[in-house]
C-alpha cells in the first residue's frame, strides 16, 4: 500500500486529481481521502524534497492506495493531474507523521468514488441462478 498526498489550490482540483488517478492511472483507493492541514502538507513536502516550495497550497488531502509505492509513482508520472501529487514512501520520516495525522483526520466529504462498489456484473442467463462475474477493475474501497 502506498500513501499519497495531494496539494492544490481548491477542492475541485483535488477531486479532479483523484479522478485522474483512478481513471487514467488505474490506482485503487483503499481508504477515503482525509483532509490534511495545508501548511502541514507543505512542510512535509519541503522535507521530502529538501527545498523550498515555489507555491503554497490552500487545501490538501491524503489517502492510501492498494498498489505499492513504485507502481504508484510510475502511474502518477503518466498522468498530469491539476494538483501536486506526492507519493510518500515509508522510507521518509514524513510517512509516519502523515499516517498519525490521518488517524484523527476527517473525511474529505466532497469525494465519491467513480468505481463500482459491487462485486461485478450479475449474469442472469445461466440456469436462472444469480451468478456474480468477478472483475477486480470494478471493485472499489469498502465502506
TrEMBL record:
<dbReference type="Pfam" id="PF04009">
    <property type="entry name" value="DUF356"/>
</dbReference>
<dbReference type="InterPro" id="IPR007154">
    <property type="entry name" value="DUF356"/>
</dbReference>
<protein>
    <submittedName>
        <fullName>DUF356 domain-containing protein</fullName>
    </submittedName>
</protein>
Amino acid at each position: 500500500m502506498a500513501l499519497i498526498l495531494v496539494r492544490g489550490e481548491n477542492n475541485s482540483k483535488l477531486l479532479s486529481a483523484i479522478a485522474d488517478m483512478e481513471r487514467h492511472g488505474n490506482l485503487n483507493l483503499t481508504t477515503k481521502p482525509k483532509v490534511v492541514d495545508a501548511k502541514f502538507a507543505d512542510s512535509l513536502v519541503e522535507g521530502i524534497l529538501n527545498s523550498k516550495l515555489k507555491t503554497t497550497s490552500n487545501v490538501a488531502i491524503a489517502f492510501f492506495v492498494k498498489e505499492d509505492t513504485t507502481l504508484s509513482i510510475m502511474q502518477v508520472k503518466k498522468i498530469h493531474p491539476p494538483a501536486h501529487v506526492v507519493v510518500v514512501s515509508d522510507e521518509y520520516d514524513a510517512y509516519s507523521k502523515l499516517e498519525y495525522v490521518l488517524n484523527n483526520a476527517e473525511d474529505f466529504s466532497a469525494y465519491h468514488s467513480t468505481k463500482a462498489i459491487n462485486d461485478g456484473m450479475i449474469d442472469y442467463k445461466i440456469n436462472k441462478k444469480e451468478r456474480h462475474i468477478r472483475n477486480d477493475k470494478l471493485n472499489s474501497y469498502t465502506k
